[in-house]
Amino acid sequence: MVLLVPELTFLTGLSDLRKNSRMLKEVMWEMIQSPQQHYQRLTSLLCRIRDTPEASRELERWGLCLDTDIYRTQGHILPVERINLRHRSFLPAEDLGWHREVTKEVPIAVISVNSWLLIYPKRLQHLAKDLLAAMRSSCGAMGMQVGQPTVQELRDDRIETYVRSIQSSLGSQDKVQLLLCIIPGGRDDVYGAIKKLCCVQAPVPSQVINAQSLTGHPGKIRSVVQKVLLQINCKLGGQLWGVDIPL
């Protein structure tokens, strides 16, 4: 038995914040800071400690002295690696991201999706329609071909309904490249059941999309669908990009 002292424990994680997207964005903004922003915040904190009499007295009581600048050491900045696609290569921007390039160019190796299943509950049929339209409009620029799926519309969003439908659909199809499911937001139990079925019991590449990620303005949905297509290409054996680092 492990007994934890309440005064010495701290709550971790963001489980309750996921329902509050605005607060979650603010937390993520605080966490994702550039090195220069980290430096400015730390030096500002050190100056506040120095200029606050109560804090200075507390440090003196402990025999501590904090420098107002951060310890400096010499470092090296490595050259930026060139990212290679099928027809061209480029250097990433300062944020070291290249999502925009890989969604507008043809990857090194592309897998066409011809035999696949789309499963969703009836109340999310409008999202399924928007998803299909966005996939068709985005796949061409990425060199992908996405065929017409076999659609299975569920009467409800219970775990048993998803599992039975997936098992029935997989059993009636000769070869399924991909299973794509749309699930209601906040249903981790449904996600876990689908992944267990598709990874253990009836192995097939699967992609599960949270319905909340498909709601919003068209630009947001298009960005989500582009990321989904990149994931699907990788799961089916495709290769998105490469670098020139020798083995």
Automatic annotation (TrEMBL):
<dbReference type="InterPro" id="IPR012337">
    <property type="entry name" value="RNaseH-like_sf"/>
</dbReference>
<feature type="domain" description="Piwi">
    <location>
        <begin position="178"/>
        <end position="247"/>
    </location>
</feature>
<dbReference type="Pfam" id="PF02171">
    <property type="entry name" value="Piwi"/>
</dbReference>
<dbReference type="GO" id="GO:0003676">
    <property type="term" value="F:nucleic acid binding"/>
</dbReference>
<protein>
    <submittedName>
        <fullName>PIWL2 protein</fullName>
    </submittedName>
</protein>
<dbReference type="InterPro" id="IPR003165">
    <property type="entry name" value="Piwi"/>
</dbReference>
